[in-house]
Amino acid sequence: MFGDNPQAGTFSVRVGPADFDPGREVASLEAKIAGAGALVTFQGIVRGDATLVALEIEHYPAMTDAALSEIAAHAGARWPLAGVRIVHRVGRLGAGDRIMMVATASRHRREAFEAAEFLMDYLKSRAPFWKKEHFADGTARWVEARDEDEAALGRWGADI
Amino acid sequence: MFGDNPQAGTFSVRVGPADFDPGREVASLEAKIAGAGALVTFQGIVRGDATLVALEIEHYPAMTDAALSEIAAHAGARWPLAGVRIVHRVGRLGAGDRIMMVATASRHRREAFEAAEFLMDYLKSRAPFWKKEHFADGTARWVEARDEDEAALGRWGADI
Amino acid sequence: MKLRVVYFAWVRERIGLPGEDVETQAPTVAGLVDELAAREPRYAAAFQDMTAVRVAVDQRLTVLDAPLAGVREVAFFPPMTGG
Amino acid sequence: MKLRVVYFAWVRERIGLPGEDVETQAPTVAGLVDELAAREPRYAAAFQDMTAVRVAVDQRLTVLDAPLAGVREVAFFPPMTGG
Description:
The complex is a heterotetramer, with two copies of chain A (160 residues) and two copies of chain C (83 residues).
Chain A: E1 10-16, H1 22-30, E2 38-45, E3 52-59, H2 61-78, E4 81-89, E5 91-93, E6 98-106, H3 109-126, E7 129-135, E8 140-142, H4 147-154
Parallel strand pairs in A: 1-4
Antiparallel strand pairs in A: 2-6, 3-5, 3-7, 4-6, 7-8
Helix pairs in contact in A: 2-3, 3-4
Chain C: E1 2-7, H1 9-15, E2 19-23, H2 29-37, H3 41-46, E3 54-57, E4 60-62, E5 73-77
Parallel strand pairs in C: 1-5
Antiparallel strand pairs in C: 1-2, 3-4, 3-5
């Protein structure tokens, strides 16, 4: 379902509880993408909400890295990318905390933008993460997948 | 041609010869966008090329800030953005140097991605910057506007 | 054959454990689901609406008719909500 | 009336200066271009293909028929190449 990544660029995936430094991630990618003129990042942040006390992220450790690497490789097979980086946190986060980021580097901006959106669309619906919201009144609720997230995959025209 | 920005978010524009730190720009925006869950950045970098010794960027100082602010305000009128940042360098740059960045913050990822692409499309063709390439053999050439950059504006459906 | 079966998110919470070894002769994932659902109400509750449950076999997303021959691990979980 | 006229990129290079004060009675930007192009070959060279030249009046992009009444600064430059 995913092709091998034919790129010589740098592709990396990291999953864990620790916070990350978006600036350091970008600087490290910049250093490895000579020739690329465009670098796009997306960063997901826990939305501030008076009633939310924590966002808990569960994952499937045996599967997560492979699923993310496969999504990155698929993007690399589709666009001429000099680099891809995916960082995703797991565990208990608070409002305003960073959740994850993706970065894509390419020669032209359109490719870098499209690849970043592709990564996000697949990561939302095809990587084994689940979010649970904990509220101030002691209740908790598993975040439900949104129909529009599943629908977003449709525009990439692949059934994976 | 552009509407006022109806957002309470933080919009800022900066133009000058100094390099910038993408991580610091993102951190500064993160600190001001409580409620936003999505942050997209685009960074333009001088493409590495064995024959290119410098990229010179000229601008129209009396117009640049106003043009960029107007483009940012237009994005803010079109998408519910918690923040927009535009940084653009001028002067003489070398291969691998940062040229510019835009950052957009919004509640949902699609809005942040679209707004960042919109900013880039307008910035390419409607902000008063001109690039000149200087080559190792002593020749120099003004970068020509690409038809596809002008065409890219069409997808936003506005004639500005 | 003996399989490792693992559960995540509300599937895990409803069944009340993160995973278990299961002895089964079911030819497909769907057959395994039927066997599990028949065990106890907590399994039946987890598997009552299979349109809300996703399946991975040996860490790859797959469908309910996927065969179990040669499989080592089956995972059940709700639609994913990463990013 | 007296206007400030400024030039950028190859328009500036062809004309050989970044800007100048111009006394004109031209009613529109197009009229001003005709007056300038008639001055000397370097102006004619800069304005020979107006499809390759963009115009701003008082720091706003506009078109060649834009009127000059009340205007303080007119800028001529090639299509922009920022980003």
